[in-house]
Amino acid sequence: MALLTCASHAVSGDHFIANRRVASARALAVTSPIDGTPLGEIAAGDAAAADQAVEAAQHAFPAWAALSPAGRGPILRRLADLIERDVEALALVETTNNGSLFEASRLRVMKRAAYNIRYFADLAETLAAPAWDTEAANAHNRVRYDPAGPTALITPWNAPLMLATWKVGPALAAGNTVVLKPAEWTPVTASMLADLAVEAGLPPGVLNVLQGLGPEAGAALVAHPGIRRISFTGSPPTARLIGAAAAANLTPVSFELGGKSPLIVCDDADLDLAVATAAGQYDNAGQVCLAGTRLLVQAAVYDEFATRLRAKIAEIRQGDPRDPATHVGPLVHPKHLARVSGYVERAVAAGARVVCGGRVSPTLGGLYYEPTLLVDVPEGAEILREEVFGPVLTLQTVADDAAIVAVANDTDYGLAAVVFTRDQARAERLADALVAGTVWVNCFFVRDLAAPFGGSRQSGIGREGGHWSFDFYCDVKNVVHRKGTFAEAHAAGRRPHGA
Ligand code: ADP
Fold first, then answer.
1. 65-84 mean pLDDT
2. Which of these, 29, 330, 360, 448, is most buried using a 10 Å CB contact count?
């Protein structure tokens, strides 16, 4: 039996399969990034555990799929209510496990986790399924969103429960069953979600949690021929491995793979807003896939922007993420610290200049890497091309709109772009020309669940959010019948899915 004690909460580290805890012969240690405290152990899942979890999901699928969206809705809304009930505990556990800010977690992130479940449960009940006539063939078309089957959900460590529910919500609302594989560094809130699922009345096998290492538990899960959908958030190298495994079974995938997003400050921008937003890119110690880490500032406002940003960075309080006064906490893991500091060291060796940070905090030590700003970065440098996923921003100057678009799009990624300008026509021209799944103009991180979300180029495959989630998690079926062969009349139009 694997056990975790996290912020005084005793949580099982075992797998959760068919509503029962399943132990593993091998275990993995989990530690807190706040101060290195051991939190206990989780099961190190292998192919046998993955088989068992997928079999449970297969077994539970027909009955769960047969419940209409209206039948699944109350159970899922109960799960959302329970997450809301436990927001404080979930937030403190998440903070202890991954180092994200407690205050942000309890006020926003955990509430969003509940909303991820509630929103998709509600949407499944009202999702408009198109219906229309093909007059020339005297036929009627009616679209159905059929559940696809057992779904593998592989999640990262930067926002563990938020990203788990962002996938679990639509997958379950669609009528699929789930095997969730949380990241091995941050497994605790997924295990707590499993307990809440039992309390909410989710039937055994509908939601399973497989613990363990990516290359072992995760790899076995995504290669399983019983899996009908794979949704993954993580890095492009891992996505290539998952994509190759999925290809063998022709399993559809949805990938969100991070970014190297530009934050563009035009010469007519509201600089107060632009500077505050740029400094906000250090949130969660920069471990945010959407972060606008390449600051592209037009020459006319470059000096003022740089001066004001440096002053703002100096005000950032780094420290224990449980302290409400803290703005930036630690990185998630010693291996990740090595990755982040390696990027900065190589950037400096290539000629970049550190104007803020560039080191572990001398007073805090541990995993507390300081908010870092790099200038004079040579064109084409690794730090401008690869995702650091840490509190590291680069500052570049750009001449005009043509240069803004060229530099912004000069990346293999395409997740997001942020634009600051007071000129609406200019904003629209830039937004049209930028390669990104989301463009924010004079704002950042507005994430409406009804909106499509995903990345262009190597930032991902597919879109989730709103009805796009159901386009992915469902087998979309068109039922066509010859008109006049049934007594009832069929009016063309849209009607709720499941009606
Ligand atoms: P990172 O390297 O920053 O941890 P990854 O993209 O490797 O990012 O990890 C994201 C998630 O993918 C984690 O849950 C991890 O366990 C999982 N993972 C890693 N390798 C594999 C793999 N080969 N197959 C399936 N899942 C994997």
1. 97
2. 330
Query: What integer pLDDT is reported at residue 50 of this predicted model?
Result: 98
Provide the whole-model pTM. Answer: 0.97
Domain containing 376 — which CATH number?
3.40.309.10
pLDDT at residue 486, as a whole number: 86
496 assigned to some structural domain: no
Model confidence pLDDT, tens digit, residues 97-141: 999 999 999 999 999 999 999 999 999 999 988 999 999 999 999
Which of 42, 54, 98, 154 is the best mutation target for the ligand 1 pocket, counting ligand atoms within 8 Å of the beta carbon and taking the most?
154
Q: Are residues 158 and 298 in the same domain?
A: no
Residue pLDDT, tens place only, 434-454: 999 999 999 999 999 999 999
CATH of the domain at 40: 3.40.605.10
Residues with a known catalytic role? 256, 289
Structural domain of 132: 3-257+455-478
* Ligand 1 contact via 68 beta carbon (within 6 Å): no
Compute the distance from residue 183 Cα to the ligand 1 centre, in Å.
7
pLDDT at 222: 98
Does 45 contact ligand 1 (Cβ within 6 A)?
A: no
Report how far ligand 1's centroid is from the alpha carbon of 348 (Å): 29
DSSP letter (8 states) at residue 237: H
> Does residue 218 have its Cβ closer than 6 Å to ligand 1?
yes
Q: How far apart are CA 341 and CA 324, in angstroms?
A: 27
CB burial of residue 91 (10 Å; 0-12, 13-18, 19+): buried
The domain tally of the chain equals: 2
Other residues' Cβ atoms within 10 Å of the Cβ of residue 8: 9
Q: Retrieve residue 10's tokens.
A: 């005793």
Number of helices and strands in the chain (H, E): 16, 23
Q: Is the CB of 355 under 6 A from ligand 1?
A: no
